[in-house]
Write a structure and sequence with these properties.
The structure is a homotrimer. Chain A is of the alpha/beta class. The first copy, chain A, is built from 11 helices and 9 strands. Chain A has a single domain, classed as Ribokinase (UDP-N-acetylmuramoyl-L-alanine:D-glutamate ligase, 3-Layer(aba) Sandwich), CATH 3.40.1190. A 9-stranded mixed beta sheet of chain A has the order 2-1-3-4-5-6-7-8-9, with helices on both faces. The longest helix of chain A has 21 residues. The first copy, chain A, is globular. The relative contact order of chain A is 0.15. Chains in contact: A-B, A-C, B-C. The interface between B and C is medium-sized, with 35 and 33 residues.
């Protein structure tokens, strides 16, 4: 089975029509851009992190995105509550393990989350996925490293151990599910100079997972849309800050033609 | 009494001259854009949420804006302290009940706040105002719904119960105070695709309430300025993200002519 | 010794090459723009504030930036842990005393931080520096006031008392270290209408201090780069919000020529 431009377009249209509620428990740095990206794609973002309300909020959501970029004790508690609730209700969870491997607190929190839920999608950079899978990679803060054979092997291992679709983003994005590997080549290097582009990718994974129960497909679609919007933005900006603006405008305006002409996906079985 | 372009302009000039200090206890998503909007209009924003300092900060402020978009236990405590202090000192309070009705925690927090202060202005979307007034509306996360007759009735009820000017924002904004209803028709639909535009409206209500003790007038002026800047921005942007940028630039540059030509206000007694 | 355009350029190139990890414990309002400014200059930002992980994160960082803009109890604890750790390891600390003097909690927190570390650089506006040095200035929220003779004297006193390079930013920036005073005249008034420009300046001080152990030079270089990017942005924007965008794009694109032509630094011994 191949993912075609047409499928991406249909799911994008579905998001715009259904406007799925995506509950985000995410980091302080990206809350604004995450919310704007979800609005731009047509989804309906909500942020809530109090233990007193996360389960209630998750219950009315169509997807839950958990991003550990700026953790603290009470946030971890709320993430665990929300993740457990989502798991119980069959609401897809996206986990973004920001900085896993950089501190033991982050790695441990990810493992605790994996104990209470099976994420639909785990999306991170190569270092983070390797840290989660093998406990061995040491990230430099929250920076991305390019995927490599070792990273791909780590993704396969993490997928086997968790049952979650695993997505490594980088110059090429790898989406791993069982024996299937999807490669998304869309994107632009300047996207790495904008904070939170990875977090936005995870949020969009949530939006696509809300409308498409095949999570590897949802992840590939989200990464392709990210990459296409990034390419269009890079052609129409003067630096990373205007790239961010044009990127969001582009998500909002994305047309069938934009997608048809640009999809760059490969698959291995 | 009609609100005229001239009155709006005079109060805008007053804000630019006096630069009132607006103390915000608001949500993580919009802190940056709220602060920038207040600066752009000529006010002086400050954010402080620690129980240890909120009363001291509120005491030197000219308005207090409380926005419950991303609550947690300690923030609620601080909001209650600050609101009580402002009430005692006669400093106008604006309450933005983000997501009231979506979770019981949010609705309860609003009621607790209404127990310790009488806001000058309560500004929310139709669902939020209905949830506060009747406990019956169920919001979909923090999304807005269009005002309707039912919403207007809820606003009147909430105004009677609290004594606060109640503002419902939507395609048309309704400002309710006693038997008076002001309608603001300025604005643009794309504003709903930018996160935090409602929160910005509440912050501007705070700036206007700081210079004009007639709160229904202050609310109408704030909503009109929001709407005018949104219209100008919508004519000069390529999507919601550039709309946000042009919107803030426009607030900063707003001239007497911009206001004179565009005000679109009606009133019923 | 004079600071020359060539020195600034060499240190900027060093940042771009080394990509120093700058650990920020900063306020909610500016996290996104701070991270983007550090990325734009070529550094690698990380945000982490949990007591459980700050020491581990600081240990792998090349500079620590502490900004007290939105304090609370647990954040203060984490700041003290991280500052103590950085001090012990010889990692340069930049302290941004946002709103010192506005509330006693903020002033006290700064003094507590100065008890556990000797910052490489303390950067604030005139009111904040005066409040820290003499306990007498009363800020109006977090707004800046123009430096004056009194402020310069306060900077000298604070430098003597702490051993830290002290930087007052304003229309002219003053950098005080021992008997040396460096004046940076670059910049543009509209920068004061963008929230967090001072916070960005502190973050850039961290990036320069990470590659240049002469902290007065690092501070002067950071302030000059800020000012130059602000001037270029002011010439190419329509208001403060587009100024912010062009400012960040300009940091990313800054060329040797931009610096050569524009440096405006004076020194007194």
């Amino acid at each position: 089975m191949k993912i075609r431009a047409r499928d991406i377009w249909l799911d994008l249209e579905k998001i715009r029509k259904v406007s799925p509620l995506v509950h985000n428990i995410t980091n302080y740095v990206v809350m604004n851009t995450t919310a704007n990206a979800l609005l731009a794609i047509g989804a309906s973002p909500v942020m809530a992190h109090a233990v007193e309300e996360v389960e209630e909020m998750t219950s009315i959501a169509h997807a839950l995105v958990i991003n550990i970029g700026t953790l603290s004790e009470r946030w971890v508690k709320a993430m665990l509550c929300a993740a457990g609730k989502a798991d119980k209700l069959g609401i897809p969870v996206v986990l973004d393990p920001v900085g896993a491997g950089a501190t033991s607190y982050r790695t441990k929190t990810c493992h605790d989350l994996l104990d209470v839920c099976t994420p639909a999608i785990i999306r991170g950079n190569a270092s983070e996925i390797m840290a989660l899978a093998t406990g061995e990679a040491k990230t430099k803060g929250v920076d991305s490293s390019d995927p490599s054979d070792a990273a791909l092997e780590a993704a396969k291992l993490l997928n086997r151990n968790t049952g979650s679709t695993v997505c490594i983003s980088g110059a090429v994005d790898y989406i791993v599910d069982g024996d299937r590997v999807i490669y998304v080549e869309n994107g632009h290097p300047m996207m790495a100079s904008v904070t939170g582009m990875g977090c936005t990718a995870s949020a969009l994974c949530g939006a696509f997972a809300a409308v498409n129960p095949s999570f590897p497909v949802a992840a590939a679609e989200a990464m392709t849309v990210m990459g296409i919007a990034g390419e269009i933005a890079a052609e129409n900006c003067k630096g990373p800050s205007s790239l961010q603006i044009v990127f969001l405008d582009t998500l909002f305006c994305l047309s069938r033609d934009d997608i048809t002409c640009r999809v760059n996906i490969g698959e291995n079985q």
